[in-house]
Amino acid sequence: MDFSPETLLIFLELFIIVTALGVVLTPEVLEAAFLLSGTLSGLAGVYILLNADFVAAAQIVVYVGAINVLIVFAIMLVQKQLDSDVTVNGTKQLAQTLIPLFLFGMFVLAITDTNWPIQSSLPTVETTEAIGKHLFTDYLLPFEVVSILLLLALIGAIVIARRDLPIKDKTIKTYSTSQLSIGSKD
Amino acid sequence: MILENYIILSASLFCIGLYGLITSVNIIRAFMSLELVFNAINLNFVAFSNFMDGEEIKGQVLSLFIIAIAAAEAAIGLALILTVYRNRNTVDGNNIDWLKW
């Protein structure tokens, strides 16, 4: 069984679009999260077709391995919601579906009309080596800034999500009452 | 042309993500739609770097930065969702209106 890259690309595109529509349209949020992992894995396959093997590996590790698992945990920590009682207005729903469709039509028209300046022969480079060279020469400052940003974001996530313990309030209260009693003694 | 194939796939992913962002009531689903939009952008970067900048693949470096920033955003966003759920007992986007006038 030998697939040409074109047929493989068509299969991957179908898979990605079907799972992405599933993410948006399924009523169950947990199923949507699992379908999202399918979309992200299919995109990793597309990256491999585009000679971007390192980005494909990063996609699998970071998106499927970290972000998607984080989303599944968040869904499981949050109680299941009943269907919300929002009455969707007819014209509002129409506008909500028409705006992305209109935008997509504009995109397709613009993409097919443009004459893309494509390089005729695709040179094959060692992508990991090239990315490493970029990251440690001309992209060194953004690389360091992104690493600081990641550190700050993780600290911030811990600070935001930490449960404020009720013990803290108690200590403050007892402290204030003891202060009061000291004040009354004086 | 095969480049247009990739860009149209990216455009359709972007529009699906946009539709999800507009319509979803559950903020976790809105969050997943946002991830779809991020991935559409990433796919654009990688496709253009492959077809127009094959020697120095700068688009792939930028897509790695986008992946890192998306990870940071996911951590912060899910922490906020959990905090909102703890305080309000809901993840319904229509009920979250602390910052609304």
Number of helices of chain B: 3
Tally of DSSP β-strands of chain A: 0
> How many strand units of chain B?
0
Overall shape of chain B: it is elongated
How many helical stretches of chain A? 7
Mean pLDDT of chain B: 89
Q: H/E series of chain A, N to C?
A: HHHHHHH
Can you give the helix content of chain A as a percent range? over 70%
Uncertain runs of chain A are 172-186
Determine the structural class of chain A based on helices, strands and strand pairing: mainly alpha
Approximately how much beta-strand content do the residues of chain A carry? under 5%
Distance between the termini of chain A: 93 Å
Mean pLDDT of chain A comes to: 83
Oligomer designation: heterodimer
Most extensive chain contact? A-B, 77 and 73 residues
Question: Globular, elongated, flat, extended or rod-shaped: what is the shape of chain A?
Answer: extended
Order of SSEs of chain B:
HHH
Low-confidence stretches of chain B: none
Kindly provide the radius of gyration of chain A, computed on alpha-carbon positions and rounded to a whole number of angstroms.
26 Å
Fraction in helix of chain B: over 70%
Walk me through the topology.
The complex is a heterodimer of chains A (186) and B (101).
Chain A: H1 5-25, H2 29-49, H3 53-77, H4 90-113, H5 127-136, H6 140-161, H7 166-185
Chain B: H1 2-23, H2 27-52, H3 58-88
